[in-house]
Amino acid sequence: MENDQTIKELKIFAANIRLETLKIIASIGAGHVGGCMSIADAIAVLYGKVLNIDPKDPSKKDRDWCVLSKGHAGPVLYAALGLKGYFPMEEAYTLNHYKTKFPSHTDRTKTPGVDLTAGSLGQGISEAAGAALGNRMQGIGSYVYVFVGDGECDEGEVWEAAQFCAHYKLDHLICFVDDNKYQLDGSVNDVMSHGLGLAAKFKAFGWNVIEVEDGNDIKQLLEAIDQAKASTGSPSALVLNTVKGKGTFAQETHEHSTHADKAFWDKVIAKAQSDLDALKGEAA
Amino acid sequence: MSYTLVFNDTKDPRNCREGYVDAMYDLMKENEKIVHIDCDLIGCVGAAKIQKAYPDRVINCGIAEANAAAMAAGMKATGMIPYLHTFGVFAGRRIFDQIFISSAYSNLGIHVIGTDPGVTAGVNGATHMPFEDAGLYLEIPGAVVLDPCDYTQVNVLTKKLCKDDRLSYLRLIRRGFKPVYGEGSDFEIGKAVTLTEGNDCAIICSGIMVGNALKAHDVLLKEGIEVSVIDMFTWKPLDEKTLIKAAERCGCIVSAENHLISCGLGSAVANCLAANHPVPQEFIGIKDRFGQTALQEVLEEEYEMTSEHIIKAVKKAIQRKGI
Ligand SMILES: Cc1ncc(C[n+]2csc(CCOP(=O)(O)OP(=O)(O)O)c2C)c(N)n1
Q1: What is the pLDDT of residues B163-187, one digit of tens each?
Q2: With an 8 Å Cβ cutoff, is A120 touching chain B?
Q3: What is the CATH code of the structural domain delimited by B193-321?
Q4: B57 CB contacts (<8 Å, ≥6 apart)?
Q5: CA-closest candidate to residue B248, choices B221, B273, B220
Q6: Assigned architecture for domain B17-172
Q7: Per residue in A31-50, pLDDT tens?
Q8: Which stretch of DSSP H or E encloses residue A147?
């Protein structure tokens, strides 16, 4: 069981990640707020506690890997990496600018700490599978964590990867399925539904499936990751029941990407700052 | 084919994509067999208007492009007329095999609309920036490949495709773009438009490069250099007649495209002229590079595609005539 102090710290870290994500997106004035916010808590748990990483040595051999197969959520990863000290945070306030190291879709050739490139949905989970198998073949016991979107799960490639991971018993691959109910054109149920549901699908593919009732809850996330690590012989999927845009305006709008003027971004950043301050106040 | 030229280097208040959607609105009203198939990008192409009007004939396949492409071919086999939209990067790289076999080889031509061609993908960045999309379609026997430049041209060509059974690929700029043609202009697939008739050099261009070429034309004219600007919006089948005549008349060519030069308009032009009337050619376009994130204007500079670059290329091509 995690102690209350850890959970408090991770909540503050998540709030900090939300604030920085908004600042990063505001630097270009447009971006995927919704899909960043739904996974901000899972990213906080990974980078705040779970991952074996060294910001001074981003490519150390025995590190744990983190892959955003839903690559458009780059900013939330950059926020975590910046706060961990992979680079000065301000550098990320150049999102999508000419010659930036921070494109909105994650790019391993550009950003310190980004393990694999994504942006073409469906490919990241295959790349993660390759990393998990490659590590295992070299006797490296690290974990590979990968995030896929519920819309992204429309792609056939996701299921090609799913069958591969199960077939090769990649129990050091843990997939976060961001079940935030929305994709680009609207709700997943309207655009392309998932039959018996994503949990049932991954189960049918031979995965160890853990349904996380509140995928934005730090405690539940920590417990689910412990459970996943304890299970051997098959890959694990953590199906996170999340809210697209969680903790921001985008929670109401469900919009996939947000284009707005400076006044708007100033306002939402101020709100995220006060949310963070409130959490810090409680903790003190 | 008749047209009016209205280019004055100012932005069109209408988005280019509306040229497609407005055409589809009219087409779908007249013909119940026409469908718009999409891959979770209805919002991006602005197809909500046709989705509202014809909800049963706008089919969202979700983020599953390969299925959408082969499915569209199957639908064509029943006599429907499918237009399939996704971003250009996926229209090329992700569904090439399905397009090649299920559609083209099976003689089940569908109309593929690829948005955000070349540098117009802007801040969506490298993974969303197609430099090779049209090139892939050029490799498919019998395909039609179109790179229109503005609302009007997109609108007319979308309508012309409806009566065309060949597999086609149309590169669709999404956002507002500088209008080149006036309302009522008409175009024929496979027939280039000669916009200006100079004898010193011919600029063969299409898409966003038409505006840049017209700007170059005006600057060059002040220096006493007269160029032909030819809008080769159909890359395939190429209007070889117009092209060869231009080469004969001008003695040198500059090709200008928003695409890789190694597999695009410039190489199609060079293939034709090498066999028929070889002349010096300079190539404006992307040279063995990946995409990247930045504003379109910045990228046009980065990849050496501006009117200044065209001007330099024209002067070089003219100079090479003498050698
Ligand atoms: C292969 C591919 N097709 C289409 C897109 C365009 N696209 C980017 S994000 C997105 C919606 C993603 O939905 P989801 O996976 O649910 O992400 P989230 O809601 O978590 O942001 C689409 C269609 C893409 N990036 N890649």
Answers
A1: 999 999 999 999 988 999 999 999 9
A2: yes
A3: 3.40.50.920
A4: B28, B32, B34, B35, B36, B50
A5: B273
A6: 3-Layer(aba) Sandwich (3.40)
A7: 999 999 999 999 999 999 99
A8: strand A144-149
> For A199-224, what is each residue's pLDDT tens digit?
999 999 999 999 999 999 999 999 99
Q: What is the ipTM of this complex?
A: 0.94
- β B58-60/B34-38 pair status: parallel
Q: Which residues in chain B have Cβ-Cβ distances shorter than 8 Å to A254?
A: none
Burial of residue A49, with CB atoms counted within 10 A of its CB: 0-12 exposed, 13-18 middle, 19 or more buried: middle
Q: Check if the beta carbon of residue A247 is closer than 8 Å to that of residue A37.
A: yes
Question: Which secondary structure element, helix H or strand E, spans residue B258, and what is its range?
Answer: strand B253-260
**Please, which residues bridge with residue A211 across strands?**
A239
Q: Taking Cα atoms as reference points, which of B124, B185, B120 lies closest to residue B157?
A: B185
User: CB-based contacts of A188: which residues, under 8 Å, 6+ apart?
Assistant: A150, A151, A181, A182, A194
- Determine if ligand 1 sits within 6 Å of the CB of residue A32: yes
Residues 6+ apart with CB under 8 A from A73: A32, A35, A36, A39, A106, A147
Q: Which residues from B are below 8 Å from A99, CB to CB?
A: 292, 294
Domain ranges of chain B: 17-172, 193-321
- The residues with which B89 forms a beta bridge, in sequence order, are none
- Residue A223: give its domain's CATH number: 3.40.50.970
Q: For residues B68 and B95, give the distance between their C-alpha atoms in angstroms, rounded to a whole number.
A: 9
Note whether A192 contacts B: Cβ–Cβ < 8 A.
Answer: yes
DSSP B196: E
Q: Which of B38, B40, B42 sits opposite A151 (nearest CB)?
A: B40
CA–CA dist A206, A44 (Å, integer): 28
State which H helix or E strand residue A201 sits in: helix A198-204
Q: How far apart are CA A45 and CA B157, in angstroms?
A: 52
Q: Distance from CA of residue B89 to its chain's centroid?
A: 14
The response to whether residue A123 sits with its C-beta less than 6 Å from ligand 1 reads no
The token duo for B57 is: 């004939």
Count of structural domains, chain A: 1
Kindly list the distances between the CA atom of residue A28 and the CA atoms of A263, B46, B121, B127, B291, in Å, as whole numbers in the listed order.
13, 23, 15, 18, 18
Identical fold between B17-172 and B193-321: yes
Q: Report the Cα–Cα distance between both ends of chain A, in Å, rounded.
A: 22
Compute CA B34 distance to the chain's CA centroid, rounded to the nearest angstrom. 22
Q: Domain containing A15: what range?
A: 4-283
Instruction: Please state the φ and ψ torsions of residue A240, each to the nearest 5 degrees.
Output: -95, 115
Separation of CA A77 from chain center: 7
Identity of the residue numbered A219: K
Q: pTM of the prediction? A: 0.96
Put simply, the answer to whether B40 touches A97 (Cβ < 8 Å) is no
**Where are the alpha helices (H) located in chain B, listed in sequence order?**
16-30, 42-45, 48-53, 65-77, 88-89, 96-98, 133-138, 151-161, 209-222, 240-250, 265-276, 296-302, 307-321
B195-221 pLDDT, tens digit per residue, is 999 999 999 999 999 999 999 999 999
Question: What pLDDT score was predicted for residue A2?
Answer: 64
How does strand A258-259 pair with strand A30-31? antiparallel
> Nearest CA to B121 among B267, B293, B307, B277?
B293
A155 by DSSP, 3-state: which? coil
